[in-house]
C-alpha cells in the first residue's frame, strides 16, 4: 500500500489542472484542505492524494487532522477532485458526530459513481447533516473555487495560464448530477 502524503502545502499546477478538470476522469482523488480554528484569520492548508486503496478523505481525517480545542469551532473546507464515496461519507459523518465543533464545506470537481445507489444515499445522508455542505466547484461568479485553489494551493510566483472557462459545460453537468442526488428521495 502506497500513499502520497505531501510534505509541501502546495500542489503542482499540472496536478491541479488535470485532476480538477471535470471533463476527464483520472484514477486518483486529490484533496485540498483549508483549516481555520476559531475566529482566526489565519488558515492552514494541506493536500493529499490517494495512491492505492487508502482514500484521500480517510487518510486526511484519520491520520492528519487532529482536533485541538473543543471550545473553538474548526472550519474545514475540502476541495475534492471527486465527491466522497460511501466509505468516506461514513468517515466524515463519524467525525462530525464525534467532534461537535467541526464544520465541513465540501467542494467537488466531479461526482464519484453518480449512478451507484449506495454512493447516492451516502452523499444525501451526509448533505442532510448539520454543519456540512456539499457543492460542485464554481468556475466563475462571485466566488471562483478554481481561481481560489489556484491562488491558494499553487506555489506563489508560478506563472501558468489556467482558465476553467473551457470546462464550464462539464461543471454545469456535474452540478445537475449532484443536485439531483441531493434532492431526490429513494422512497
TrEMBL record:
The name this protein carries in UniProt is ABEC1 enzyme
Which gene specifies this protein's sequence? Apobec1_1
Q: Which organism is it from?
A: Nicator chloris
Question: What does the entry list under GO cellular component?
Answer: cytoplasm; nucleus
Pfam families for the chain:
SNAD4
**Keywords noted in UniProt:** Hydrolase, Metal-binding
**GO molecular function annotations of the record:** cytidine deaminase activity; RNA binding; zinc ion binding
Q: List the InterPro entries hit by this protein, alphabetically.
A: APOBEC/CMP_deaminase_Zn-bd, APOBEC_Cyt_Deaminase, Cytidine_deaminase-like
PANTHER family in alphabetical order: C-U-EDITING ENZYME APOBEC-1 (PTHR13857:SF26), MRNA EDITING ENZYME (PTHR13857)
GO biological process annotation, one example? cytidine to uridine editing
